[in-house]
Write a structure and sequence with these properties.
- With 235 residues, the protein is mostly beta strands.
- Among the domains are: 99-154, SH3 type barrels (Roll), CATH 2.30.30; 157-234, Translation factors (Elongation Factor Tu (Ef-tu), domain 3).
- Helix content is 9%, strand content 37%.
- The chain has helices spanning 40-43, 55-64, 86-93, and strands at 2-3, 8-13, 18-23, 46-47, 101-105, 110-114, 137-142, 147-151, 157-168, 178-183, 191-197, 202-212, 219-224, 227-234.
- It has a six-stranded antiparallel barrel.
- It starts with a strand and ends with a strand.
């Protein structure tokens, strides 16, 4: 077995003869979103020992055994970027720093300039350096033209996405459209949607209601109540 500290659960469904990937009991710490790519073979060898516990229970367990990390503060950043400066990390490792360019609104009007699209993410509001009188959010990134497109929050809503690199936890896609709840980022609240497979590793998804800042490159994960149905990478 391979055991990890993810807040998630795995069990075997005797009726369907399939392993299930399930949310962690602690919904505030649930990390099943990050595990959507696991296959049936991998799940058969996976163990998530803290998935049935809350974070408070894990700390109590660790303290009762004298473990020095029992009161360690929660981690909120990427583990391999300990200082949280993702911009500098990209610049050190990308080989070539993206070009400077324009910040424009959705109509193409130039509002300012930036020093590289790698500093931004779809949905970002802080750090844009704009004085427009209306809060602006990153709507789209155009790395070819070195352009950052911004818009008021009301323009960021979308109901449709396509995804590639899709993995289905059952090992095969559903026969047709399936009702799910879908999450487009780790801290995003699940939203009702219909997912339609497009072959073995592609899917399209339509939300019932518009979702803010659907970001290409981010994972979208499909759920059926407590169970992960599958997921992929937003195109």
């Amino acid at each position: 077995m391979v055991a990890t500290g993810h807040y998630a659960r795995v069990d075997y469904d005797e009726d369907r003869r399939r392993f299930r990937l399930r949310r962690g009991i602690d919904r505030d710490k649930d990390q099943s979103y990050f595990l959507f790519s696991l296959t049936q073979d991998q799940l058969s060898r996976a163990s998530f020992p803290v998935g049935h516990l809350t974070k408070a229970e894990v700390r109590t367990y660790a303290a009762s055994r004298g473990l020095p990390v029992a009161d360690k503060p929660d981690s909120h950043e990427i583990c391999f970027v300990p200082d949280g400066d993702t911009r500098r990390f990209v610049e050190r490792h990308a080989g070539a720093v993206p070009d400077a360019g324009e910040i424009v609104d959705s109509g193409g009007r130039v509002l300012g300039r930036h020093s590289g699209v790698h500093q931004f993410t779809v949905g970002q509001r802080k750090g844009l350096g704009l004085a427009t009188g209306t809060p602006m959010y990153v709507m789209r990134l155009d790395p070819v033209e070195a352009r950052v497109v911004v818009a008021p929050k009301r323009e960021l809503g979308g109901i449709h996405l396509t995804a590639s690199g899709v993995n289905w936890i059952d090992g095969a896609p559903p026969d047709g459209p399936r009702r799910v709840t879908a999450r487009i980022r780790h801290r995003h609240r699940d939203a009702p949607a219909t997912v339609t497979p497009g072959g073995t590793d592609r899917a399209s998804l339509e939300f019932d209601d518009p979702q803010i800042a659907i970001a290409p490159g981010q994972a979208v994960v499909f759920y059926d109540s407590e169970d992960v149905v599958g997921g992929g990478w937003i195109d």
